[in-house]
Amino acid sequence: MPTETKIGFIGAGQMAEALARGFINQNMVEAEHVFCTDPVEARKEVFRSFGTVPVDGNIAVAEAAEVIFIAVKPQYVPVVLREISPKLTEKHLIVSIAAGVTLAVLTEAAGPKAKIIRVMPNTPCLVGETAAAMCLGHGAGSADADLLQRLFESVGRIFRVDEKLLSAVTGLSGSGPAYIFLVIEALSDGGVRAGLPRDVAQALAAQTVLGSAKLVLETGKHPGALKDMVTSPAGTTIAGVHELEKAGIRAAFMNAVTAASARADELAE
Amino acid sequence: MPTETKIGFIGAGQMAEALARGFINQNMVEAEHVFCTDPVEARKEVFRSFGTVPVDGNIAVAEAAEVIFIAVKPQYVPVVLREISPKLTEKHLIVSIAAGVTLAVLTEAAGPKAKIIRVMPNTPCLVGETAAAMCLGHGAGSADADLLQRLFESVGRIFRVDEKLLSAVTGLSGSGPAYIFLVIEALSDGGVRAGLPRDVAQALAAQTVLGSAKLVLETGKHPGALKDMVTSPAGTTIAGVHELEKAGIRAAFMNAVTAASARADELAE
């Protein structure tokens, strides 16, 4: 059953579109209960095309919706919140998806009335498979968390963490898609090196990555145990695994997550 | 519309079960048109539980079905084929999913009548997302290839390649799940290193891997282009990517695929 809550988007970019389409497609909200605004008229037309209601200006969104997604570039978030601040009431829930903009900054800019939640989604949101985390801020309670949980489970998965862990989330799932794109490209190159046509190699690589992750998620088995199950003695797989271990790829991925996490801490300062 | 073709499984292990369930769930074949045998009675009971028809012995499968999946361990494949050989006709299509058993060996053991196809699936078949390849052997034509294409698209994706490329496929998609399990474990470790609880880190890691691969498959964009789209100047993601490049992970994955592929060549000799 769709929520009666009206949902607004300030900023109607790709991530906002992915969220709005996901919520509507999964019957979490009716399209006519979704409002948006954007300085680019073409983006409003895209939102109109799937039944949502574009309005003119940020204040109009605050007047139309109770849950307001702030989906503008991080540097504009405080500006937008200060603009709509006079219209915000205790019924408003501000959901910021801006990287590095802290709850303290959001609260200061939005004023004391609205409830606040920060979310760190990632780009697979565009295909309904985001890995996201949220942290509750000023005034937000478990009913708000439940609402966000239901909304985000229509476009992937979401976990609740303390704000201090959002940098770690940024380093892992926020930045992680880039690491996996690189892996898919390298696996494709390996397939081409071994003789496969590029299109077959890339499709096999991407499909293998997808299927393996799904196997972890659906079986609930430890990835190490799943690795053990497919490595026959003196077989092909352990020969490949050996090469990855020789290169220290475990440490490399840990370094990637911790370096990106540290950079997120720096940017949030 | 389900095919009228009767499908048999010699060997009713996990991969056979994943295939049979996929074909039936996707309405490719009716359960009562699927036959199987296995020396382990419990496996036959599993197959009976979803409506298929267990029979006693390999010859009974050959008598009941036209498309026969050979899903026993590689060393038993020639034995099984020699046993059923007297029952095989021009209407039979033998589909071997055994690694390293060549078309020449299959043809020699099955005799001159049956049509033969080799398939290299991978374990995400168990969750309906296999990345597979097939090569046509003795007597098999485009109608047989089309049938296998339809069947396998109910449990993932399949590509047609020359037999000489099956080792490359083995090195990439056959062995690839193990590489990705290792990546998911390492990303989880990175998340834990950065402060996340283990369960959140592993779920974010696996979901990020799944979503990123789906983004490659559904957008059809080059993984390099997708990587570029998410790497902001001096941002978190490029900091993580830098660590992966410092460790040479591209070469490591290419080495993994080529080493596993070379091992597959050795084993097929």
TrEMBL record, chains A, B:
Any GO CC annotation of this UniProt entry: cytoplasm
Pathway: Amino-acid biosynthesis; L-proline biosynthesis; L-proline from L-glutamate 5-semialdehyde: step 1/1
The protein, known as: Pyrroline-5-carboxylate reductase
InterPro entries membership: 6-PGluconate_DH-like_C_sf, NAD(P)-bd_dom_sf, P5C_Rdtase_cat_N, P5CR-like_CS, P5CR_dimer, Pyrroline-COOH_reductase
GO biological process per UniProt: L-proline biosynthetic process
Binding positions for NADP(+) per the UniProt entry: 10-15, 71-74
Catalytic activity: L-proline + NADP(+) = (S)-1-pyrroline-5-carboxylate + NADPH + 2 H(+); L-proline + NAD(+) = (S)-1-pyrroline-5-carboxylate + NADH + 2 H(+)
Molecular function as annotated in GO: pyrroline-5-carboxylate reductase activity
Domain Pyrroline-5-carboxylate reductase dimerisation: 163-267
A Pfam short name: F420_oxidored
Membrane-spanning parts: none
Pyrroline-5-carboxylate reductase catalytic N-terminal domain mapped to chain residues: 6-100
Keywords for this protein: Amino-acid biosynthesis, Cytoplasm, NADP, Oxidoreductase, Proline biosynthesis
Protein family (similarity comment): Belongs to the pyrroline-5-carboxylate reductase family.
Main location: cytoplasm
